Fold this sequence. Notes:
Strand order of the largest sheet: 2-1-3-4
Number of domains: 1
CATH class: Alpha Beta
Distance between the termini: 9 Å
Structural class: alpha/beta
Strand content: 15-25%
Oligomer: single chain
Amino acid sequence: xxxxxxxxxxxxxxxxxxxxxxxxxxxxxxxxxxxxxxxxxxxxxxxxxxxxxxxxxxxxxxxxxxxxxxxxxxxxxxxxxxxxxxxxxxxxxxxxxxxxxxxxxxxxxxxxxxxxxxxxxx
Length: 122
């Protein structure tokens, strides 16, 4: 597989509204790290890249893709599915499109189907 590089972008567990979604920062972090470990065990080189707010979301992508050429970039369901964060999702998609046009873009439906989302594209 040549260690395909994968970036997983999503909310930092410390900024998620768990009253709205349930769970806890620890549970979310554990799920994300579990999916990262699965991807890595299958030969992917995977980075989890957290966003903390809408104002810095674009720059978070810009900084990451300036340092590493990713084959696939996943934007997490927590960004995409929450209507309050529609503009953040838009910023992330446009940052990837502009700054990493060669990368495949994928989306998960929850933290536990990240591996399947990546495998659909690489």
